[in-house]
Design a protein that fits this description.
Layout (H helix, E strand, L loop, with lengths): L6 H24 L6 H14 L3 E2 L11 E5 L2 E3 L14 E10 L2 E10 L5 H19 L7 H14 L3 E2 L5 E3 L6 E5 L15 E4 L2 E3 L5 E3 L6 E3 L5 E3 L2 E4 L6 E2 L6
Antiparallel strand pairs: 1-4, 2-4, 3-12, 4-5, 6-10, 7-8, 7-9, 9-14, 10-13, 11-12, 14-15
Helix pairs in contact: 1-2, 3-4
Length: about 250
């Protein structure tokens, strides 16, 4: 069941999203060769707690960290570690969740570590473009497949693989709520209504679509070991333009 958010719900979610954006702002400053993903996690934890919020991911189904850090061929759910040191030419997807006032903000962004290859640049640019193409369709009166189709069209134009086992989702009091949102066309004609809040999150690969879960039972990697990028915003549908819930508030 999809829950429409009240004005008060939206206010709290917007604050949660602001905190997530603060963490991303800090990540943008500190992502560089030589830093460990554990250091990134520690920084994120401090920012979230300093803003009187809770790291949503920490302890979620046993997940052991505050953020997900997925490097190169890692798609999603990479676990921060002191052993994972970023190096020149890497790309890293950082997924962040914060709970404030009982509501969740959820956003992921991919970052270049120093100078990256033109192909990785194309992958990141296209995945970000696919995100905003999907966001444009997040308005009352459209259907979920309008979002999925917009994402797929951008990926297909650049001949990128589309991760099919994972996708977007409703957000609210819980991090994962109905509906599930595919990143490719499926014919889902679920009507989008004003007050729906969905995390839109394309995950695109330089190689094929196929992914697999590693032995830690969390980290998802591309089967062909080609790089993957991940971009995500939590988005509110209105009768007018979509509203990004995971940006900095003025």
């Amino acid at each position: 069941m999809i829950h429409r958010k009240s004005r008060e719900d939206i206010k709290r979610m917007r604050h949660a999203g602001h905190i997530v954006a603060l963490v991303h702002q800090e990540m943008k400053k500190v992502v560089e060769p030589g830093i460990s993903t554990k250091e990134l996690d520690d920084i994120a934890f401090r920012v979230i707690k300093a803003n009187r919020a809770i790291p949503t991911f920490l302890g979620y189904h046993g997940y052991p960290a505050s953020i997900c850090t997925s490097i190169n061929e890692q798609v999603v759910h990479g676990i921060p570690s002191e052993k994972d040191i970023l190096k020149e030419g890497d790309i890293i997807a950082i997924d962040i969740g914060a709970t404030y006032g009982g509501f969740v903000g959820d956003s992921a962004w991919s970052y270049a570590v120093g100078k990256i290859s033109p192909e990785k640049e194309r992958l990141m640019k296209t995945t970000e473009e696919a995100l905003f193409a999907g966001i444009k369709q997040m308005r009352a009166g459209n259907v979920l497949d309008d979002i999925s189709s917009a994402i797929e069209a951008v990926a297909n134009r650049e001949k990128l693989g589309i991760v099919r086992q994972y996708g977007g989702h409703g957000v609210g009091r819980n991090m994962h709520e109905d509906p599930f949102l595919f990143n490719y066309k499926t014919g889902d004609n679920t009507l989008i209504k004003s007050g729906y809040v969905i995390a839109i999150e394309p995950m695109l690969n330089l190689g094929g679509d196929d992914v697999e879960v590693m032995s830690d039972e969390w980290t998802v990697c591309t089967k062909d070991k080609q790089p993957s990028a991940h971009f995500e915003h939590t988005v509110l549908a209105t009768e007018d333009e979509p509203v990004l819930m995971t940006t900095l508030m003025e």
